[in-house]
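Repro:
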Amino acid sequence: MIRFDAMVGRFNRLNETLITDWIARGWIDAAGSGPADWRFPDGEVARVRLLYDLQVDLAIDEDSIPVVLSLIDQLYGVRRTLRVVMDIVETMPDTAKLRDRILAALAHPNADGPAAAADQPRRPGDATPP
């Protein structure tokens, strides 16, 4: 767990007002009743860095931040899922051949095939894919 003062010390322009706002909006989690005793889980440092970059450095509008956070959370979810799939693939017989096929398909995402078709934008009147 990281104390509030240690968290603020990591960033040049981070202050109590920003952290309080981020906690109130549910963008970050803290244990404790206020700045004097707030404690942040270690994983929240990365979340604070992301919010700091988005709001302070990149000046992203605060109304847009929930959308950005949602998309990033979804991306991380997909990465976790792919990591699980790859771990399962590694335990299967003939793993090298299967892994090579997966990596080849990922290396050429515009090649013909089911994955390529799923990534193509649909036009009005296109048949719904099976």
